[in-house]
TrEMBL record:
This is Glutathionylspermidine synthase family protein. Keywords: ATP-binding, Ligase, Magnesium, Metal-binding, Nucleotide-binding. Residues 2-371 form the Glutathionylspermidine synthase pre-ATP-grasp-like domain. The keyword Metal-binding applies. SUPFAM superfamilies: Glutathione synthetase ATP-binding domain-like, PreATP-grasp domain. Pfam families: GSP_synth (PF03738). InterPro entries: GSPS_pre-ATP-grasp-like_dom, PreATP-grasp_dom_sf. It comes from Paenirhodobacter populi. One of its GO terms (molecular function) is ligase activity.
Length: 373
């Protein structure tokens, strides 16, 4: 990719156990709890729901999945952290995060290989309990076993790799997994979702964004389908960058958050923006509330001059949020972002991706890590 390997083991990132536990694991678990608190507040307010950019006709369905206690499975928090100072939340993909296979199976295999080759000491470790946590989560959610359909868009090897990893974890947890591409799902006369053979789908893991699903005709059947969705629809509030100004509104000054505002709020420069003025001295990042892999993201300096911008403008039409610019750390000309995995409600592991540019995107390299000391 760009003439370089996506998986790069020419180097690795070394962490101490203290850094993992105190700077990444515990703050990520706390941030997730703050996100859950934010969801509970947002669904009770029409004003706040309107800020999330989701179709109003599906607000009741979204709220119903939250009030009904539909459990979440997984998510990935993207953090800026360079070994000093506090980790800062950049965004939270709580709906369709990828790089799961790399973070769990392949990264752990790398660690074992390096120990066997005596490149790393025998007591080297890795923050990587995500696979075991996934298996346990499936077993907890479906203790009697069940059939879960796993779906993704056709002809996308990265998405299929994530879905296949999920399906193997489900199988190890006692669940019967079946795969079909999302274009093969149909609807019965009474509004139930069907597989390619016409059998009703009771449980569906979909690697397909809620913001897309809710704007398609099939969404009209969600409430009556009797289909339990993974992730549940309330996750549409967390994988949405509109959650960032919500988190700041509800937790202003939290040390692991960056000040963030909706674009119109930032332009109005009200009291909350003024209180955060110092945090914007390094610049600001403008992000669409719906965006994937860094697309349509711009980094501006304090005067509004452009520092960096994505070449992918596919999400330009969406409403924007403005987040204080927190420069990523730099190691040998590359900028890493930590992806902290949340399984259930707990941070269980991480993976790192780095890019020579300032905006992490879909072809950024995956770099393994280990714990020593």
């Amino acid at each position: 990719m760009y003439g370089e390997p996506y998986w790069n083991e020419a180097r690795a990132y070394r962490f101490t156990l203290r850094e993992i536990e105190e700077d990444i694991e515990d703050p990520s678990t706390e941030l997730h709890q703050m996100c859950l608190d934010a969801v509970g507040r947002i669904i009770e307010s029409q004003e706040l729901m309107a800020r999330m950019g989701l179709p109003e006709k599906h607000w009741d369905y979204i709220a119903g999945t939250w009030r009904g206690g539909d459990p979440g499975l997984y998510g990935r928090m993207d953090l800026a952290y360079g070994g000093t100072g506090l980790a800062k939340l950049l965004e939270y993909n709580a709906d369709t995060p990828t790089s799961l296979f790399e973070s769990t199976s392949f990264q752990w295999q790398w660690l074992e290989d390096q120990i066997t080759a005596k490149v790393l000491p025998r007591d080297a470790d890795q923050f990587n309990g995500t696979w075991e946590a996934l298996v346990a989560r499936f077993a907890e959610m479906w203790p009697g076993g069940d059939t879960i359909y796993f779906t993704s868009v056709p002809e996308n090897s990265e998405d299929y790799g994530t879905v296949e990893t999920m399906a193997w974890a489900a199988k190890e947890g006692g669940v019967n997994p079946l795969y079909l591409t999302i274009d093969k799902i149909g609807v019965s006369d009474d509004g139930r979702f069907l597989d390619a053979d016409g059998y009703p789908i009771r449980f569906l893991f979909k690697l397909y964004p809620w913001e897309n699903m809710l704007n398609e005709p099939f969404a009209d059947y969600l409430a009556q389908s009797g289909c339990f969705m993974l992730e549940p629809a309330w996750k549409a509030l967390l994988s949405n960058k509109a959650i960032l100004p919500m988190l700041w509104r509800f937790n202003e000054g939290h040390p692991n958050l960056l000040p963030a505002f909706f674009e119109d709020e930032f332009a109005e420069a009200g009291p909350a923006v003024q209180r955060a003025e110092a945090a914007f001295a390094a610049g600001r990042v403008v992000k669409p509330i719906f965006s994937r892999e860094g697309a349509s993201v711009r980094i501006l300096d304090a005067a509004g001059g452009e520092i960096a911008a994505s070449g992918d403008h596919g999400y330009d039409e969406h409403p924007k949020i403005v987040q204080a610019y927190h420069p990523l750390p730099e190691f040998d000309g590359s900028h890493p972002v930590i992806g902290a995995w949340i399984i259930g409600d707990t941070c269980t592991g991480m993976g790192l991706r780095e890019d020579r540019g300032l905006i992490t995107q879909n072809l950024s390299q995956f770099i393994p890590h280990y714990i020593e000391g």
